[in-house]
Amino acid sequence: MIIAPPKRPRSNDDSILPLINIVFLLLIFFMLAGVLAQSPPFEMTPPSTAKTQDKAQLDNRVLSIAADGRMALGGSEIQTDELANALDDWPKDKPLQIRADGALKAEALTELFTTLRASGVAEVNLLTQHNDP
Amino acid sequence: MHIESIPRRKHSISLTPLIDVVFILLVFFMLATSFTDWRPIGLATGTSTATPGQTPPAVVRVDADGNLRYQQQIMAAAALATQLKSARDRDEISAVIVQPDAEASLDVTVGALDALSGAGVTPLSLATGTPASSADSP
Q1: How many helices (DSSP H) and strands (DSSP E) are in chain B?
Q2: In the predicted model, what is the mean pLDDT of residues A128-133?
């Protein structure tokens, strides 16, 4: 009777330990394997590719474009005329990452390139989602 | 010594608050992380960067149905990519400009870009309007 009470709390903790082990493992997996990325404030389905081999890590200042032409720099929406100002300090040798909705007219993108070129962005990386063929 | 060790075990820290915090962190990372496999296609914003000499750039037109036209001929994407790659290796062209038609969507255009960039055709760029707009920014 005296030996029994201290065993009960111990066995409670012992039964929780495997749970904590798994939860810690999951936590570390999600921390290391995933990328914390700001998502744009609109729905977007980027075009998919099969042959492009390069891989990309998302920048903080990725330019997202919705099918209706709305744009977001990072996580916040931005107007076309504010874009030149926002990208004023963009380094010359660094490509700007753009992810755009697949339904967007390609012409809208080329018109945007004119604005980007004026603000000193010489190269862009058009981000696509990889699909195995 | 034996008497002291028993009370210490009794006062061990409760694990419940730790589990609470770890669960919250776990849920946060599960929701906030993205596992999307992004593939970049490098494009020049201006075609002017790719005209150091007299070699002209190749212009590939993409229509709304995804047909690729090079020198007025409709070509298959894979065949066009190999042809342009070897032409690029022989320095017959300085760059490849992809020109989507007014009605072409980005999905269709990226299909062409994917074939070209997958074949290793390097200075790629997107352009609108009439061909041979390889001079300066407007």
Answers
A1: 4, 7
A2: 80
- If asked whether residues B69 and B108 sit together in one domain, one would say yes
DSSP helix/strand/coil, A117: helix
Provide DSSP, B63-90: -TT--EEETTEEE-HHHHHHHHHHHHHT
Q: Does A127 touch chain B (CB under 8 A)?
A: yes
According to DSSP, the residues that pair with A78 across neighbouring strands are A71
Residue B95 near residue B47 (C-beta atoms within 8 A):
yes
Asked if residue B67 and residue B102 are part of one domain, the reply reads yes
Strands (E), A1-133: 35-36, 48-49, 63-65, 71-73, 76-78, 96-100, 123-130
pTM over 0.90? The answer is: no
Q: In the predicted model, what is the mean pLDDT of residues B12-23?
A: 84
Q: Are the C-beta atoms of A117 and A83 separated by less than 8 Å?
A: no
pLDDT at B5: 52
Q: Is B16 helix (H, G, I), strand (E, B) or coil?
A: helix
> What are the domain boundaries of chain A?
1-34, 48-130
Question: Do B119 and A24 count as a contact with CB atoms less than 8 A apart?
Answer: no
Of B34, B114, B119, the CB nearest to A49: B114
Q: Predicted ipTM?
A: 0.71
At the topology level, CATH places domain A48-130 in Nucleotidyltransferase; domain 5 (3.30.420)
Average pLDDT over residues A62-67: 87
Determine contact: A91 vs chain B, CB below 8 A. Answer: no
d(CA A95, CA A3): 70
Question: Which phi and psi angles does B133 have, rounded to 5°?
Answer: -90, 50
- Strand ranges (DSSP E) for A3-107? 35-36, 48-49, 63-65, 71-73, 76-78, 96-100
